[in-house]
Write a structure and sequence with these properties.
- This protein has about 375 residues and is of the alpha+beta class.
- It folds into three domains: about 10-125, no CATH class; about 145-300, C8orf32 fold (Roll); about 305-365, no CATH class.
- The protein is about 30% helix and about 25% strand.
- The strands form four sheets. It has a seven-stranded mixed β-sheet with strand order 2-3-4-7-6-1-5.
- Helix 1 links the parallel strand 3 (about 45) and strand 4 (about 70-75).
- Helix 3 (about 125-135) packs parallel to helix 7 (about 210-220), helix 4 (about 145-165) packs across helix 6 and helix 5 (about 165-180) packs antiparallel against helix 7 (about 210-220).
- The longest helix has 20 residues, at about 145-165.
Length: about 375
């Protein structure tokens, strides 16, 4: 994309970095930061003294912006082509829009003395407006649709808080609520709401972006820290969440949760509930340096629920317990290499798959209904 700048005219460009670039990011240590002040919108503005010469430098500033809803940044770029480089750097994750609610970072340019002065400012999505309104105790900030989503989200969280006591149980209950009440929108091209929290919580139809935003909002209202992660899975752009199971960011213990991939059309899965970078890395890719690290499986669904078999006999017992409950889709983590001899107990009509799961294997057993 090329953009010619007029010496007087101010060009405005709204850039969506990843599908939701305002998802919180672990802090970046940037050099050359000048004194902060208030920008035109009244939000905190930080000034970068050094001229940004390359895409890595601009990328760091964008990452810094992504960590703060209210901050804008002013800098000088060595050339307008630098922004073109960033677009190529992000590839398919960069889209252009002037629509409120899309979410991302806006940027204003003007040419001064052979350099390009740029100001980056936040542009919010619906779920971010709701979070900001909630933090400020200012419901008057919200329009009718946003208010409808906010009230629905509060009702969901109140219901979960009444039923569940532990942090793990609350996170899992919200995860299960979304799975039970959202249908993946395969016809998303004709349904723009599928990409946001309105589609997820009001219409009950969403794609991964809507799932991730809804989960982020519900967790926030429940007082649980989380972020939205963007990357690729199954060869396509994808979004999911990281959830912090510690009471403070200083001692954070993060786990990946992919509600969308757990909400399969053909089964009720928990494969991607509270997994580590290592486990998720078998199926998903993302810029790991931009997001908190998840290095534990301690709170993983199967670990927490005791659905881990250490031996063939243990596997058969876990299967028997699940089968007796009438389940037609069973997942069991095996801490040993599963062979044909370990599966002789499977009844006729059962199909199975074995996939890597960190240092273990995940055995998935399915029975056709009817």
């Amino acid at each position: 994309m090329g953009l010619l700048l007029d010496d007087i005219m101010l060009k405005r460009l709204i850039v969506l970095l990843s599908l939701f670039s305002l998802a919180a990011l672990a802090g970046c240590d940037l050099l050359g930061v000048g004194n902060g002040g208030l920008g035109e919108a009244g939000n905190l503005q930080i000034v970068f003294d050094e001229v940004v010469e390359n895409v890595e430098g601009l990328d760091e500033i964008v990452a810094y912006m992504s960590d703060n809803f209210f901050m804008s940044a002013k800098m000088r770029l060595s050339s307008i082509e630098l922004w073109d480089e960033l677009e190529l750097y992000y590839g398919d994750n960069v889209q252009l829009s002037m629509k409120r609610g899309i979410g991302g970072l806006g940027i204003e340019y003007r040419e001064i003395g052979g350099l390009v002065e740029a100001t980056i400012f936040p542009v919010y999505e619906m779920f971010q407006y709701i979070i900001i309104s909630h933090e400020r105790a200012a419901p008057e900030m919200l329009n009718a649709d946003e208010t409808k989503v906010y009230e629905a989200a509060k009702d969901i969280v109140r219901a979960v808080d009444v039923r569940e006591t532990t942090l793990w149980d609350r996170v899992y209950a919200l995860h299960e609520y979304l799975k039970a009440n959202i249908v993946y929108e395969h016809g998303y091209a004709d349904n723009p709401s599928a990409f946001d929290v309105y589609g997820a919580l009001i219409d009950g139809r969403a794609v991964c972006q809507g799932y991730a935003q809804a989960f982020r909002l519900l967790l926030h209202l429940a007082g649980i820290e989380s972020v939205i992660v963007t990357g690729r899975a199954g060869g396509e752009l994808h979004a999911w969440n990281l959830v912090n199971y510690s009471s403070s960011s200083a001692s954070a213990r993060w786990y990946h949760v992919d509600v969308t991939w757990n909400d399969r059309d053909d089964a009720d899965s928990n494969r991607f509930f509270n997994v580590s970078d290592e486990v998720l890395g078998d199926t998903h890719t993302w810029k790991r340096g931009y997001f908190p690290h998840a290095d534990s499986m301690y709170m993983n669904y199967f670990q927490y629920r005791g659905i881990v078999a250490d031996t063939g006999n243990g596997l058969e017992q876990l299967f028997g317990a699940a089968f007796s409950r009438g389940l037609n889709f069973i997942e069991i983590v095996c801490a040993f290499r599963v062979g044909q001899d370990n599966l002789r107990f499977l009844p006729f009509g059962a199909s199975y798959a074995i996939t890597p799961y960190g240092n273990a294997e995940l055995l998935t057993i399915k029975f056709e209904e009817g």
